């Protein structure tokens, strides 16, 4: 395996590629053509805002020309706002990497496109009955596993980056609530240092106020802490029936709580 570090602030020049190709053991007669192919692949990678461009095999024809025998390109969905033509060309089979997008996933992508530069959303719909809106990288993954350990079934994976949360959280809560078969919702994130809790909670409260929810039959559990947490708690108090917790309650306890509430609601 040979690696060529690239300065992303500068272009990749053919001469750099030649040195790299020759280091890999390619004879000089073929090295220039391979170097041009590597440079072209890099330029395509940059132009398409790709996550990955893989050519395998790069084949030499009888006339000496090089062709990509097969190639795979993984695009960055967060950069689609800069690549509208590429997004249009994506077939349904592209989906989210393993199946076509569901209606809810397409809706969430539309929500994310409201402002592609802030509060970027990653979302996958699953066959569960608990609306899982817990973000924060490893925090979200741990919570996902914990809900399974408690006997719950998350209905999605979710992550949202820090920023002006309100509008996107408002829309995503309303969109997710419409998923058939849901029996409860849990919302949380790791304790923040710079993302205000009240901005996030404001969107959630707006959505919950507009939805006709019987919280005895559809429990909503919220856990946030950090700057603006007290203001967030005051906002959540305007939604009687929804439960809000802070850092004094662990994520394990939150996961156990939502699963218990869902099971209680099923038994009614």
Describe the structure.
The chain has 268 residues and is of the alpha/beta class. The protein has 2 domains: 14-75, no CATH class; 100-266, Succinyl-CoA synthetase domains (Rossmann fold), CATH 3.40.50.261. The protein is built from 9 helices and 10 strands. The protein has helices spanning 14-23, 28-47, 84-89, 103-112, 138-149, 166-177, 197-210, 229-236, 251-266; strands at 50-55, 58-60, 66-68, 71-75, 121-125, 130-135, 156-160, 184-189, 220-223, 243-245. The strands form 4 sheets. A 4-stranded parallel β-sheet has the order 6-8-9-10, with helices on both faces. Strands 1-4 form a two-stranded antiparallel sheet.
Give a brief outline of the structure.
The protein is α/β, with parallel strands linked by helices and 268 residues long. It has helices at residues 14-23, 28-47, 84-89, 103-112, 138-149, 166-177, 197-210, 229-236, 251-266; strands at residues 50-55, 58-60, 66-68, 71-75, 121-125, 130-135, 156-160, 184-189, 220-223, 243-245.
List keywords for this structure.
four-stranded parallel β-sheet; 10 strands; 268 residues; Rossmann fold; two-stranded antiparallel sheet; alpha/beta
CATH architecture of the largest domain: 3-Layer(aba) Sandwich
Number of strands: 10
Helix/strand/pairing category: alpha/beta
> Biggest β-sheet, characterized?
4 strands, parallel
Mean pLDDT across residues: 90
Number of domains: 2
Distance between the termini: 60 Å
Radius of gyration: 24 Å
Query: CATH H level of the largest domain: which superfamily?
Result: Succinyl-CoA synthetase domains
**Poorly predicted spans:** none
CATH fold name of the largest domain, please? Rossmann fold
**N-to-C SSE series?**
HHEEEEHHEEHEHEHEHEH
If strands are numbered along the chain, what order do they take across the biggest sheet? 6-8-9-10
Oligomer: single chain
Query: Helix share of residues?
Result: 40-55%
Can you count the helices?
9
CATH hierarchy, class of the largest domain: Alpha Beta
The coarse silhouette is elongated
Strand content: 15-25%
């Amino acid at each position: 395996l040979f690696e060529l570090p690239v300065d992303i602030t500068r272009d990749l020049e053919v001469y750099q590629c030649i040195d790299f190709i020759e280091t890999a053991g390619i004879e000089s007669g073929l090295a220039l053509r391979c170097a041009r192919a590597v440079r072209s692949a890099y330029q395509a990678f940059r132009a398409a805002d790709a996550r990955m461009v893989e050519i395998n095999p790069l084949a030499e024809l009888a006339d000496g020309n090089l062709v990509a025998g097969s190639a795979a390109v993984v695009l960055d969905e967060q950069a689609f706002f800069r690549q509208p033509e590429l997004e249009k060309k994506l077939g349904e089979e592209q989906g989210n990497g393993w199946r076509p997008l569901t209606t809810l996933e397409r809706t969430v992508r539309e929500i994310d496109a409201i402002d592609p530069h802030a509060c970027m959303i990653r979302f996958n719909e699953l066959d569960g009955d608990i609306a899982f809106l817990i973000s924060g990288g490893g925090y979200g993954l741990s919570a996902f596993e914990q809900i399974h350990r408690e006997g719950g079934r998350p209905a999605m994976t979710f992550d949202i980056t820090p920023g002006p949360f309100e509008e996107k959280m408002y829309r995503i809560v309303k969109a997710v609530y419409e998923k058939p078969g849901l029996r409860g919702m849990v919302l949380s994130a790791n304790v923040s240092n710079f993302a205000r809790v009240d901005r996030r909670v404001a969107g959630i409260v707006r959505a919950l106020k507009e939805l006709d929810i019987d919280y005895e039959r559809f429990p909503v559990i919220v856990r946030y802490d950090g700057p603006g947490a007290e203001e967030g708690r005051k906002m959540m108090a305007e939604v009687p029936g929804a439960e809000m917790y802070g850092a004094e309650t662990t994520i394990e306890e939150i996961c156990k709580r939502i699963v218990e509430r869902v099971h209680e609601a099923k038994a009614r």
